[in-house]
Design a protein that fits this description.
The chain is an alpha/beta fold and 262 residues long. 30% of the residues lie in helices and 28% in strands. It has one domain: Vaccinia Virus protein VP39 (Rossmann fold), CATH 3.40.50. Helix 3 runs parallel beside helix 4.
Length: 262
């Protein structure tokens, strides 16, 4: 669905990861269960909490900028964003690609409502069954959402179907090391997904001939312990409660990739 990583208890579940002398450290696996994803994106609250802490790389690069530049270079006439979230990125694309028709979909009626309020042609729809004709778009955009698709390869096949022969998919996702330090401090372990920095290229090559990947070392900035705990609570309340107290602001390293597939 939306424009940043996801998950509360219904969405991210804990699995055994390793054992040390004090406790079992658990890993977090982002679910692609439709009911779980639907429950957490019933509104924009969790997404807003997560997106508020993210900054670009030390040299000022933002994943959204990398993706937007790739889209602009394609000079699209018709552009589709799947999993549009609140519509912020779709609105940006409409502004920066003034000759393009921008269409957006999401499975959340509330998020589609927010996107439509920005003037975007937005629809409730599923990436695994896109309600569009073959070869109807020059670019499809998928920002931090492919790890939630119940059948990833069905979703990618649908994206390939609606793209024109020389069209491009631009997709953003996170890596296994994304926020690892914060998660382990709280007794967790890396977020493991079905579409990541580590495995995204392999998945895309099953549907596209050419895949490029740009990796970015993003930064999560928390003003205090309460904000970091609130962030973790969007994944798991127990994890949030386990975060040891700290004073003042903290930064944690992220790991993001932007893929372009043709």
């Amino acid at each position: 669905m939306p424009d940043a990583e996801k998950a509360p208890p219904v969405e991210a579940h804990q699995v055994p990861f390793r054992e040390d002398s004090h406790r079992i450290v658990t890993g977090m696996v982002l679910s692609n269960d439709p009911a779980g994803v639907r429950a957490q994106y019933a509104n924009e609250a969790r997404l807003s909490t997560r997106s508020s802490v993210w900054r670009g790389t030390r040299d000022g690069r933002q994943p959204q900028d990398v993706a937007a530049d790739a889209i602009a270079r394609a000079r699209p006439q018709r552009l589709l964003e799947v999993g549009c979230g609140t519509g912020a990125f779709a609105e940006r694309l409409a502004t920066e690609n003034c000759n393009a028709v921008v269409v957006a979909i999401d499975r959340s009626p509330r998020l589609v409502e927010l996107t439509a309020a920005r003037g975007i042609d937005a629809h409730v729809a599923d990436v695994m069954a896109l309600p569009f004709a073959d070869a109807g778009f020059d670019v499809v955009v998928a920002m931090w959402m492919l790890y939630h698709v119940p059948d990833l390869h069905q979703g990618l096949a649908e994206i390939r179907r609606v793209l024109r022969p020389n069209g491009a998919l631009v997709a953003a996702t996170n890596g296994d090391e994304h926020l690892t330090e914060l998660l382990t401090e709280a007794g967790g372990a890396p977020l493991i997904t079905q579409f990541s920095t580590e495995n995204g290229s392999e998945a895309l090559h099953r549907h596209f001939d050419h895949v490029s990947q740009t990796e970015l070392a993003t930064q999560a900035v928390f003003c205090d312990h309460a904000q970091a705990s609130a962030y973790l609570a969007t994944f798991d309340d127990t994890l949030a409660a386990s975060l040891p107290h700290f004073d003042g602001p903290r930064e944690y390293a992220g790991a993001t990739s932007v893929f372009v597939a043709r």
